[in-house]
Amino acid sequence: MWLLTVLLLWVDPTKAGITLQPPWVSVFQEETVTLQCVGPRVPGNSATLWFLNGTATPTSTPSYSIASASDRDSGEYRCRTGLSVLSDPVQLEVRRDWLLLQVSSRVVMEGEPLALRCHAWKNKQVYNVFYYQNGKVIKSFNRNSDLTIPKTNINHNGIYHCSGMGRNRYTSAGVSVTVKELFPAPVLKASVTSPLLEGNLVTLSCETKLLRQRPGLQLSFAFYMGSKTLQGRNTSSEYQILAARSEDSGLYWCECLFSLSFSVSGLQSPTPVWFHFLFYVVVGIMFLVDTVLCVTIWKELKRKKKWNLEIPLDSAHEKKRQEQEEQLQNRVHRQAPQEA
Ligand SMILES: *[C@@H]1O[C@H](CO)[C@@H](O)[C@H](O)[C@H]1NC(C)=O
Ligand SMILES: *[C@@H]1O[C@H](CO)[C@@H](O)[C@H](O)[C@H]1NC(C)=O
């Protein structure tokens, strides 16, 4: 029985994860930061391995505490728990400056949140704070405040910095943030490229390509003509007009929606102690009955990408038909004005 459990875990290894408290990947010298290694453990054994720049550290507890950060703490951290594989790296940077733009992560998957903080040395008050992305102001606050982007998209890629007024106006160094795109905007294609005639079968397909696989990612598609919904959210990326009639002329568009589950990171409030307690009790019981328990906290997200396609259909006028042909051949796609 135990062997079976071990085998099951071995076949489906879980990656450990690192959360930071406070949740920023860069800190000032002398500040405090705690890294927490999250992953399945053998009950009663909290042993954790911590690596800094690829070298094992003496720390063997689930949390890695840095009481007063110094240059020696800068670097790439990874961890693993008893029943997990090595986590993705977290790059911790220790700086000395007047103002520091802190980010919750330097690399985020499209749809995940990103938090920014304009943090002054020794927590000094700064006013009239500006956040910049690629040199342009994106937000200003009279009283200093964090900036949260709840759902990132590729437009959030770039270099961020901030400035704030203390005794003088201070400006932070830039921090590069990368948002990894999951799939490009879909393209709506029609099966018919020759002149559309009444009675024709037209298949519309909403095409997109997943750029990266991700567990918990699901795509679905919706088709519209003008403001009318032709096919609501469905996993099928095709829609058929069985016998086109002149009323079917119009502007068609499709939406590709995704729902994404992702692990709650250090951005959210830390898990309370009772949760850890409950977690160990539950894991213990589950092991006794020889069942594998996977606990991950998932959050559902949706985002839409749209694409338009003009389908004119008019059997009467030759001139119009030529236009149709051109339009269909050129496949003039227009990006929908806004995300819904
Ligand atoms: C880890 O590597 C980074 C960059 O390669 C370096 O700046 C840092 O000092 C290293 N940290 C340690 C503890 O060796
Ligand atoms: C999705 O589309 C298929 C084929 O068009 C259809 O058979 C099915 O009922 C649809 N499902 C939903 C939930 O609308």
TrEMBL record:
SUPFAM superfamilies on file: Immunoglobulin (SSF48726)
Disordered, as annotated region: 317-340
GO terms under biological process: antibody-dependent cellular cytotoxicity; innate immune response; phagocytosis, engulfment; positive regulation of phagocytosis; positive regulation of tumor necrosis factor production
Signal peptide region: 1-16
Listed transmembrane segments: 273-298
Recorded GO CC terms: external side of plasma membrane
GO molecular function: high-affinity IgG receptor activity; IgG binding
Pfam families assigned to the protein according to its UniProt record, in alphabetical order: ig, Ig_2
UniProt cross-references to SMART domains, sorted A to Z: IG (SM00409), IGc2 (SM00408)
Protein keywords: Cell membrane, Disulfide bond, Glycoprotein, Immunity, Immunoglobulin domain, Innate immunity, Membrane, Phosphoprotein, Repeat, Signal, Transmembrane, Transmembrane helix
PROSITE patterns: IG_LIKE (PS50835)
Compartment annotation: Cell membrane
Domain Ig-like stretches: 13-80, 89-178, 184-265
PANTHER family: HIGH AFFINITY IMMUNOGLOBULIN GAMMA FC RECEPTOR I-RELATED (PTHR11481:SF11), IMMUNOGLOBULIN FC RECEPTOR (PTHR11481)
Family per record: Belongs to the immunoglobulin superfamily. FCGR1 family.
The protein, known as: High affinity immunoglobulin gamma Fc receptor I
Species whose genome carries this gene: Saimiri boliviensis boliviensis (Bolivian squirrel monkey)
Highest classification ranks of the organism: Eukaryota, Metazoa, Chordata, Craniata, Vertebrata
